[in-house]
Amino acid sequence: MSASSGMNVADRVKSLYDEMKVASNKDERIRLILFSINNNIIDVYEDKIYKQGDLDSAQKDCFEVLKEHLKPEKSLYVLYDCHFEKKELGTQQDLVFAMWNGPQTTIKNKMMYCSSVTALKKCFPGIKHDIEMTDPEESATRENFMEKLNVTGVTSVEGKPIRRGI
Predict the structure, then answer these.
(1) How far is Cα 43 from Cα 65, in angstroms, rounded to an integer?
(2) Which residues contact 80 (CB under 8 A, 6 or more apart)?
(3) For residue 71, which of 43, 105, 40, 39 has the smallest C-alpha distance?
(4) DSSP 8-state assignment for residue 163
């Protein structure tokens, strides 16, 4: 798939999205994928695909793993299967697509990621949340992240309570 910016999307990107949406068993469920641009191709960043079983065996929290990758000098695309609880509705799962342009990344990088995002989004029909993040504060806490998603009434994210129901 090609974008007007001349950027191509690797073939496996769409199949990974499809696999993420259709959870087979809990351990094999893909929870987080990071994408980057390399040689004019949008593909998985350093093979960063996190499955629930891998996160569980390493005793890692998916939200914390996400935060670890949002470096000030980096640009990335993120596909995140966010699990959260709401007061009245219980546990929910939403797919989140995010474009991260850290505050210290180059203008050239920011422009390249912004101009290529449409090609990648076409591979992800039906995404509930589509956000841009440029400030580490937007994901500094679970509460801040849910505010960025504009989701209210949340009591916990990834099984960890937030300070207050928003």
Answers:
(1) 19
(2) 31, 32, 62, 66, 95, 96, 97, 98
(3) 105
(4) S
**Residue 111 belongs to some domain of the structure:** yes
For residue 119 the two structure tokens come to: 């090609």
* pTM for this model (two decimals): 0.90
Question: pLDDT by residue (tens digit) across 67-79?
Answer: 999 999 999 999 9
CATH number at residue 116: 3.40.20.10
Residue 155 lies in a domain: no
Question: Which amino acid, 94?
Answer: D
The two structure tokens encoding residue 154: 């949340």
Q: Which domain holds residue 129?
A: 8-136
Count of CA atoms in the C-beta half-sphere (13 A) of 38: 11
Does 20 map to a domain? yes
> Total domain count for the chain?
1
Report d(CA 64, CA 138) in Å as an integer. Answer: 13
CA distances from 166 to 78, 79, 129, 156 (A): 24, 23, 17, 10
pLDDT in tens, 82-103: 999 998 888 899 999 999 999 9
Q: Does 154 map to a domain?
A: no
Within its chain, how far is the Cα of 18 from the centroid?
15
